[in-house]
Structure formats: C-alpha cells, structure tokens
Design brief:
- With 346 residues, the chain is of the alpha+beta class.
- The chain has twelve helices and twelve strands.
- Strands 1, 2, 3, 4, 5, 6, 7 and 12 form an eight-stranded mixed β-sheet that branches. A four-stranded antiparallel β-sheet has the order 9-10-8-11.
- α3 packs parallel to α4, α3 packs across α5 and α4 crosses α6.
- The protein is globular, with a radius of gyration of 20 Å.
Length: 346
C-alpha cells in the first residue's frame, strides 16, 4: 500500500517508553510454558526515555528508515532485508505492505542500552501505521504483533515484556500464560494511585555503563542451559523471587525489595558471570554495601543497571555510582522517571 498520499495530508508521530525489568527471560515461551505450574511472571516499569517514530511521505515503491545511531537505509519495497540492523522495522512495514514511506526513529535512551529499544521502536511503528490507516489503537494486539514479528526475524527466542511496557506504561507485574487460542498475559499494576507511582521514583536509580550490550549471547546461554535441564530449578526460584519482589514494592518495603533484587542477581551471576561487565560488578557491589539492590536490565552484558532501596540509601548510592561512572566514557546516571503512559499518538 502506498502511504505517500495518506502522509502528505498529515505526517504521523507516535512515542512509547522504554523499561527496566526484574524476572526477565521468564517472558520467553521456552520458559513460561514448561514452568506454567509456577505461574511465571516478570516485573518491569516504563521509563520516560521515550522512543519516537514519525512517518512522512517518500517515493512510491520505496521505503526509507532513519534511526539515531545508525546509517539511514533506503530500499525498494520488494528488496527489504530482515537480517539488517533495521530488519525488524522492515518486517513491520512488510506486514502493512507499506511503501512510499520514510520511517524516522529517535530514541531518548542510549543506543543498545538493554532498555528494550528495538522492541519499543516496533511498538511505536505499528501504532503509527494503524494511526495512518485511521484504525483503533489496541495495545494488547500491538504487543503480540510486535513480539511475533520480532520473533520471526530475530533468529533467537524472544520475550514479550519489552513490548508490554512500551504499550501500557507504568509499573506492572506481567503474568505469562497460555490462553484458549494462544499465549496471553495478565497485567497487575503495582500501585493504585498516580501519587504512589510518582513516589516510587525516590526509591530507584538507573545508570548506563557506557558499553553497549549484545543480548543474544547471554540469552542464548540461558535458553540452552534451560533446555538441557541444567537450570530449571534456578528459574523456578527466580519465578518465586520475582513475585515476592512485586509484593514487596506493592507494600512499599523497599529494603526487602532490594534484598530480593540482590538474591536474583546473584542467581543470574551463578549461571552467567558475564551478565555484569566490570563496571556493572562495581556498581552492584557498591549498591549491596549501601543496603540497596542492583540488577542489570534486559539480558545484561553491558548496557544499564538499575537499583532500588530506601530513599536515604538510594541518595547515597547516587553519589557513589556517579563517582564510579564519571571516569568512564559515555557512562552516566540517567535522568529518568517512571512513565505512566504507554503508546501516545502525537
């Protein structure tokens, strides 16, 4: 379908938040289906480091993608490549049979920071195409479409928590299940009021280690060890800890939440020591020393860490983390808060 004429009337712009998480990997069907008896769940919270997607008119039968941090690429509609760094964006465009469109992607989070950037961009792009077509924006439908498209071109098992945070926003526990006709999730909000959600910001910290991550490497190790039966018991423990973590935050017991975060991180380190790089290990150890919890985001191995704890301890940790990060190129504390909103059509 030629989107040129549709977009000449009005370019479409959408945005979605990225996320930090706890209990990741459990959102991959490789894990949550065999572990169904444990009621697997992942916790995450959306951050106001949003990804923006804009659709503007372009040449008929051609698609152009421009994204901050990557070289722009323009191809004929019938010559798209799904193994390109922008392959997921081309997969989305192909789903809509789109051409005559220039896709602009601008993310507020650092490139490859393990905050779910590519999945966020897919959610935003799908939303943009639906908006251009004048169709209703249905967050749950968009979550599953974005996930399925990513899984179809990634070449590795993919989770769905990134897409869920991007589409819905806020802080949530996501329960992963098999429904009557396919996979489904239940969304359990952490806080009932906007005031409580806003207050949570005083108990968290997010840092970028300065080194981009490559999630396939560590995720593959987790998947392989689970399939081989070596780590099933470990992931059963992670299921329990994740749900305890959610209840601790809901009860505003941030000291307990921090202890649970340390426990989960150490289980991950036992399976894959490289989940924390050298900087990440220093940040983690400093957090533990100051009675806070700290954890990598996504599949770790670079990218970001986030911390949780009582307000006074988090304040001390912010100073300590800043001292550790200042000498490292590109590393920094991120100026971010929880974003209560998911998909926004601008």
């Amino acid at each position: 379908m030629n989107f040129n004429q549709l977009l000449e009337k009005k370019p479409i712009e959408t945005s979605v938040p990225c996320r930090v998480d706890f209990g990741g990997t459990l959102d991959i069907s490789t894990f949550y289906l065999p572990l169904a008896h444990t009621n697997p769940a992942s916790f995450n919270m959306a951050l106001n480091l949003r990804t923006f997607v804009t659709l503007t008119p372009w040449t008929k039968n051609r698609i152009k993608v421009s994204s901050r941090g990557f070289e722009s690429i323009e191809v004929k509609q019938d010559q798209v490549r799904f193994d390109h760094p922008m392959g997921l964006m081309f997969a989305v465009a192909s789903f809509f049979n789109a051409h005559g469109v220039h896709i602009h992607i601008n993310s507020s989070s650092p490139p490859r920071s393990a905050l779910g950037g590519s999945s966020c961009a897919a959610v935003a792009l799908i939303s943009a195409f639906y908006a251009a077509l004048g169709q209703e924006i249905k967050p749950e439908k968009i979550v599953w479409l974005a996930h399925t498209l990513e899984a179809s071109v990634a070449g590795v098992p993919c989770g769905v928590q990134d897409q869920a945070a991007a589409a819905f926003g806020g802080a949530n526990l996501w329960e992963w299940k098999m429904g009557e006709t396919g996979p489904k999730f239940n969304q359990l909000k952490v806080f009932d009021t906007a005031r409580d959600l806003e207050g949570f910001n005083d108990h968290i910290l997010v840092a970028y280690c300065g080194i981009p991550h490559v999630s396939k490497d560590i995720n593959k190790q987790w998947v392989d060890s689970f399939i081989q039966g070596k780590t099933i018991a470990v992931f059963e423990k992670i299921v329990d800890i994740t749900k305890e973590f959610y209840l601790a935050i809901k009860a505003k017991n941030f000291d307990l939440a921090g202890q649970l975060m340390v426990k989960e991180t150490r289980l991950r380190l036992g399976m894959t020591p490289e989940v924390l790089d050298n900087t990440g290990k220093k940040l983690f150890e400093r957090a533990v020393a100051l009675n806070c919890g700290a954890r990598f985001t996504g599949a770790g191995g670079g990218g970001c860490l986030w911390a949780i704890g009582e307000q006074d301890n988090i304040s001390k940790l912010a100073d300590a983390w800043k001292s550790l990060l200042d000498p490292i190129e590109n590393a920094a504390l991120l100026d971010t808060k929880i974003d209560p909103n998911g998909i926004v059509i601008l």
